[in-house]
Amino acid sequence: MFRFRSQKKRQIPEINMTPMIDVVLQLVIFFVVTTTFISVESGAQVNLPSADFSRIEEAKTITVTITESNSIYINGALVDEKELAQVAVAELRQNPQATVIIEADKNVLHGKVVRVMDLLRKSGAEKMAIATQPTEGQ
Question: Rounded CA gap, 100 and 81, in Å?
Answer without folding.
Answer: 16
